[in-house]
């Protein structure tokens, strides 16, 4: 029996390996299985591969990394090189050996932990780093989610990150933190995808972009019920979008220390992250926090990406409550009852409850504040003056070359097991 599965699995890997290219970046630069950091003894100076920065909320220590043999340098783009027809043939060409130093700060908290009394509430900006100095060497926890429900290229690949409700962390990749150079780099703030149900900033390392002269910030935000559960009013729900906005405020306040220009921030998102980008452009609450935007493989006008009817959001919360044994007749009592349940119970219930409308129970909800109205209605009526787009900034929209590979492997696996049907 096991030999049959081995043959099947080998066949599937062979098929998908032709579709999914092997990563070309050095794996050890973004491997999350690195050794855990240990508390630094008092009065111990910086190691040769470490760098310290001072923020208003505390001191931060990150890593200095040397990227070797890159096919580019920060000051030279391949499109700007000599055209082939104008260059001379070199019988013994030497490979490019460009070495670039970047600086990485992982697992930096940007908000107070959304646990206990802060659970299912708007995030609060962090006032002080939890340790002095704060060692930003390892990824922070991924927000609570059903990791078995996430897209998987390799079916037996374990989830490499810690999952916890205390998850509001960001990662910073920067070409320079020196004040001597006087450089101020453009900034990308990236929101991951996952249908607002799964995903993590830790899955999107940005060493390559940093080597090109861009400061990149990847952001964790709450997902699923813990990020978007709502009673259909303006005072509940959309916590994941609020997390993203708070991260943008953190970037505005602190990115100068990391060599970034707070006036040159571009928000970029993939999948649900792209939907988030559109939502921030339409939200007056996010105005002034970014200069431009890019949305990859997602749009805020997709009907399955948000909940437009407050009654539906309300009913979904009540449905979750019933599933968890919260049978109170008053909505706020149901809400408080859900708050008393464990993380695992809430996540599992969200996954198990049958869906009658839309793709998921909990999504961004039109609340009149964070999302002022139906996105399609806002866009259609903006030219007539009936609605407004608060952040009318340059927007790049597109899709990615390998979109769909996350479902290719499971689909091919099932077809092979079922005899090619």
From TrEMBL:
Name the record gives this protein: COesterase domain-containing protein
Q: Which protein family is it in?
A: Belongs to the type-B carboxylesterase/lipase family.
* Domain Carboxylesterase type B, residue spans: 99-408
Alphabetical UniProt keywords = Signal
Q: Which Pfam families match?
A: COesterase
Q: Which Gene3D superfamilies match?
A: alpha/beta hydrolase
Domain of life, per lineage: Eukaryota
């Amino acid at each position: 029996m096991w030999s049959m599965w081995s043959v099947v699995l080998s066949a599937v890997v062979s098929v998908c390996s032709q579709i999914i290219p092997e990563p070309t970046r050095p794996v050890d630069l973004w491997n999350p299985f690195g050794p855990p950091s240990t508390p630094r003894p008092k009065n111990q100076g910086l190691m040769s591969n470490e760098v310290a920065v001072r923020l208003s909320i505390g001191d931060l220590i990150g890593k200095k990394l040397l990227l070797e043999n890159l096919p580019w340098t920060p000051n030279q783009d391949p499109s700007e090189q000599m055209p082939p027809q104008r260059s001379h043939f070199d019988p013994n060409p030497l490979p490019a050996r460009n070495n670039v130093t970047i600086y990485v700060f992982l697992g930096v908290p940007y908000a107070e932990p959304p646990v206990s009394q802060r659970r299912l509430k708007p995030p609060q900006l962090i006032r002080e780093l939890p340790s002095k100095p704060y060692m930003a060497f390892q990824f922070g926890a991924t927000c609570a989610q059903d990791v078995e429900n996430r897209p998987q290229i390799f079916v037996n690949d374990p989830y490499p990150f810690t999952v916890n409700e205390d998850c509001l962390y960001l990662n910073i990749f920067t070409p320079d933190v020196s004040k001597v150079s006087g450089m101020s780099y453009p900034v990308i703030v990236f929101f991951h995808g996952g249908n607002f149900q799964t995903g993590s900033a830790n899955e999107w390392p940005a060493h390559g972009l940093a080597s090109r002269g861009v400061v990149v910030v990847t952001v964790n935000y709450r997902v699923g019920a813990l990020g978007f559960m709502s009673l259909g009013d303006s005072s509940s729900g959309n916590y994941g979008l609020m997390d993203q906005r708070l991260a943008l405020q953190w970037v505005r306040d602190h990115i100068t220390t990391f060599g970034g220009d707070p006036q040159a921030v571009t928000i970029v998102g993939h999948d649900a992250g792209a939907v988030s980008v559109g939502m921030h452009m339409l939200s007056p609450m996010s105005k002034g926090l970014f200069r431009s935007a890019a949305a990859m493989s997602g749009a805020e006008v997709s009907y399955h990406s948000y909940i437009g009817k407050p009654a539906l959001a309300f009913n979904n919360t009540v449905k979750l409550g019933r599933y968890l044994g919260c049978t109170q007749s008053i909505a706020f009592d149901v809400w408080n009852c859900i708050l008393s349940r464990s993380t695992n119970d809430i996540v599992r219930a969200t996954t198990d409850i049958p869906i009658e409308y839309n793709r998921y129970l909990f999504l961004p909800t039109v609340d009149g504040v964070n999302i002022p109205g139906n996105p399609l209605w806002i866009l259609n009526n903006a030219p007539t003056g009936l609605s407004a787009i608060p952040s009318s900034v340059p927007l790049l929209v597109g899709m990615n070359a390998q979109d769909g590979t996350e479902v290719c492997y499971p689909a091919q696996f099932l077809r092979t097991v079922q005899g090619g049907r």
